[in-house]
Structure formats: C-alpha cells, structure tokens
Design brief:
This is HNH endonuclease. With about 170 residues, this protein is of the alpha+beta class. It has 7 helices and 6 strands. Bound molecules: zinc ion.
C-alpha cells in the first residue's frame, strides 16, 4: 500500500496522501495514526515509526466542495459488493438497467452489478421487458464512499474493519 488514507477529525474519509506526507502530518502533530502497517516502518534521521495506513486529522477540516464519485465498472461492482442485482449471487459483470442500445448511459443510477448469466439473459432489454426484477435500486455513492471506492482492493483489505465494511 503506497498511499495513506486521511480521515477527517469526524472519522469521515477525506483523501489519500503519500506515505511521506502522512508521516510529516503525524510528526507535526496535525494527525494521529489510526492504523499502522504491521511490518513496514518509516525510518529517518530522527524517525522510526510504523508506516501509517490510516491517519486522522486532529482538527476538523470543512470541505466546501465534495467530489462526486467518477463512474467506473469496478466502482459499480464494489458499490454492489459483487452481488448480482437480479439474483443476489456473485456478480462479475456490470449491467446497464436501460441498455446502451436504448440510450442508457454509464452512470451510477443506470448500472448495477450482475452475474454473467443474468446479464446475458437480460441482453438489450430493460428489466421490465426482460421480466426481471431489481432486488435493489442503484444509487450514487456518497463522497466518502467515493474515496473508499478509489482505493485498490488491496488497500481496502488493509483498512480497519469499521471503515472497510462499507467499501468491500
Ligand atoms: Zn444474477
């Protein structure tokens, strides 16, 4: 894991920073380490501390502009926890609710995780046309979710459980 996740003082995920930047924030008492790498250490002239994986800012930072999550196939699979929106089994594909052939777009609200079988069965039809029911409605991830979605699988796996439960 190269980057360190930065939480606001309110524990809300804010951004990621480089490992070096994270260490500087901790050494300047601007942040505290919430979770450290079990093995990796940061060593310098006056420093020898475990590499921080998650830090939390000591002071609350007001964020005026919340970034919207850019749509991605991987993001849809993570948002839906790799569960098919039609049958609940493991999903490996992304289905367009309104098919692209009918003008459906690559958006959070028009895409769901789907198993290959259901995706194939639905083909270029809407759920109504295919006689299929969505088990849940697609939704746009919150900015905090977006931050988690932007992390790699390996990084998500390394997060503390209380933080990762919404991301994986
Ligand atoms: Zn399915």
């Amino acid at each position: 894991m190269r980057d360190t996740l930065v939480l606001n003082a309110s524990f809300e995920p804010l951004s990621t920073v480089s490992l070096n930047r994270a260490v500087v924030l901790v050494l300047q008492d601007k942040a505290v380490v919430e979770q450290a790498h079990p093995v990796l250490r940061m060593r310098g002239a006056d420093v020898d501390i475990p590499a921080p994986r998650v830090i939390r800012l000591c002071r609350y930072v007001r964020v005026p502009f919340r970034r919207r999550a850019p749509w991605s196939r991987r993001g849809v699979l993570v948002r839906d926890r790799h569960r098919c929106a039609y049958c609940g089994r493991r999903a490996t594909t992304v289905d367009h609710v309104v098919p692209r052939a009918q003008g459906g777009q690559d958006t959070w609200l028009n895409t769901v995780a789907a198993c290959a079988e259901d995706n194939h069965r639905k083909a270029n039809r809407t759920p109504e046309e295919a006689g299929m029911t969505l088990l849940r409605q697609p939704f746009e991830p919150t900015p905090a979710d977006a931050m988690l979605l932007s992390l790699g699988q390996e990084e998500i796996a390394a997060l503390p459980e209380w933080l990762a439960r919404d991301a994986a």
